[in-house]
Q: What sequence folds into this?
């Protein structure tokens, strides 16, 4: 609590310091004879007829005169005052820039490289290989075998068609059979091969049946690609229906990274732009590119899901791993100013334009994107204008103290303060504090003012 009070009193002392710098010499010599009362520099609502101190912060009240700042609120600051207060001036320039977007991402398998092994016929497993979720398997590796009575008839027809084709081909070579019959038998054999694919009979097992002319006891389940097992729904004796997924295998040599992009950053992201994917746990960085697919909107996080395609040598990236994504976005050409040049009250944003040497006029502006320590100005400034880029706090404080004294003088002298803080004779009214609190606050204010001087 004490630290917060000291910080508040430091700001009060700084405002008092700038008010002393900003008072013209004529006023400092006593030209404000047409006094309308005395006001607190930090609490304009505190107004009384005579000299005294503010009952809220303890600061000395300053006289309110009919002469105030210029009608546009301009402040005159001499070169010596600018140097003392650290006020720097620079021109507003228009330029293009780039911005590094750092996005959170999650690794997902490439959908075009995910293979689902579904049952082509109902049956029951006789044997399952020692592969589990996460196991690395090779192409044509046997994952298990199952018994399917409904597939026996198709296998028998295949063997009959195979034998018939061999006889027809032999007769044709001897010239005892025309080519039309051979083509018909070949078409029947092709139909059996298509049925084998639907049943899930592997090419290796089919060739084995052609060679031995025997019906196998079980149908083997083999891996269609080198990859990792994402799901296993098989166990010895397990009975399954047609169409059920038995295994799911993904080729992770190339993966997707789904990154979250906020809507305000989405216009600067384009398809094909390079990206860097950083895996903190693996201490590695991989290169990728933004996919052509349109980003999908996530209503839960209120972000756009951006897809990045990444080559994955050594299988560094695994599904569901969290990574950091870096994109270098090219920003459009715009007027930009330092962030310190803007006084932001939350309701409006103000810059101080140097209309003449040493004369600063406040001007409200509309801001755009922010890139590092610079902010784009959408409306309110023109290229080449000179603005204060540092020390804006002092200019803003002086403007706030002068505005009530110049723009609201008539209303303050003709009607009572609506807050009830107007007092007479220097009394504290309803804001009387204990002597200990007043002494502590005065000591802190004097210390901060001495430091600013």
A:
């Amino acid at each position: 609590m004490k630290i917060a009070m000291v910080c508040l009193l430091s700001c009060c002392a700084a405002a008092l310091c700038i008010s002393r710098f900003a008072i013209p010499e004529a006023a400092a010599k006593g030209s404000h004879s047409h006094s309308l009362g005395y006001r607190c520099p930090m609490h304009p609502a505190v107004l009384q007829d005579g000299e005294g101190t503010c009952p809220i912060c303890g600061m000395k009240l300053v006289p309110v005169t009919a002469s105030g700042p210029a009608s546009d609120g301009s402040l005159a600051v001499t070169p010596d005052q600018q140097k003392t207060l650290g006020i720097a001036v620079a021109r507003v320039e228009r330029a293009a820039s780039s911005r590094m977007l750092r996005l959170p991402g999650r690794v997902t398998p490439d959908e075009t490289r995910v293979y689902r092994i579904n049952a082509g016929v109902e049956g029951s497993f006789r044997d399952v290989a020692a592969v589990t979720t996460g196991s690395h398997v090779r192409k044509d590796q046997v994952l298990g075998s199952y018994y399917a009575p409904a597939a026996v008839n198709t296998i028998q027809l295949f063997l009959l068609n195979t034998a018939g084709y061999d006889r027809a081909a032999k007769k044709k070579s001897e010239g005892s059979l025309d080519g039309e019959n051979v083509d018909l038998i070949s078409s029947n054999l092709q139909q059996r091969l298509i049925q084998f694919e639907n049943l899930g009979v592997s090419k290796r097992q089919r060739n084995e049946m052609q060679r031995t002319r025997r019906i196998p006891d079980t149908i083997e389940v083999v891996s269609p690609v080198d990859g990792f097992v994402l799901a296993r729904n098989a166990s010895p004796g397990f009975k399954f229906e047609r169409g059920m997924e038995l295994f799911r295998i993904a080729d992770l040599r190339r993966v997707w990274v789904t990154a979250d992009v906020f809507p305000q950053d989405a216009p600067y992201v384009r398809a094909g732009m390079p990206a860097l994917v950083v895996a903190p746990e693996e201490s590695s960085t991989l290169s990728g590119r933004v996919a052509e697919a349109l980003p999908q909107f996530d209503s839960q996080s209120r972000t756009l899901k951006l897809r990045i395609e990444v080559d994955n040598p050594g299988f560094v990236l695994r599904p569901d791993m969290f990574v950091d994504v870096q994109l270098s976005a090219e920003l459009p050409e715009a007027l930009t100013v330092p962030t310190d040049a803007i006084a932001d009250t939350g309701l409006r944003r103000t810059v101080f334009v140097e209309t003449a040497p040493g004369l600063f006029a406040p001007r409200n502006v509309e801001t755009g994107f922010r890139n590092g320590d610079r902010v784009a100005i959408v409306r309110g400034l023109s290229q080449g204008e000179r603005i204060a880029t540092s020390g804006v706090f002092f200019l803003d404080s002086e403007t706030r103290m002068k505005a009530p004294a110049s723009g609201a003088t008539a209303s303050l002298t003709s009607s009572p303060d609506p807050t009830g803080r107007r007092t007479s004779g220097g009394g504290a009214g309803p804001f009387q504090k204990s002597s200990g609190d007043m002494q502590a606050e005065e000591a802190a204010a004097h210390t901060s003012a001495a430091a600013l001087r």
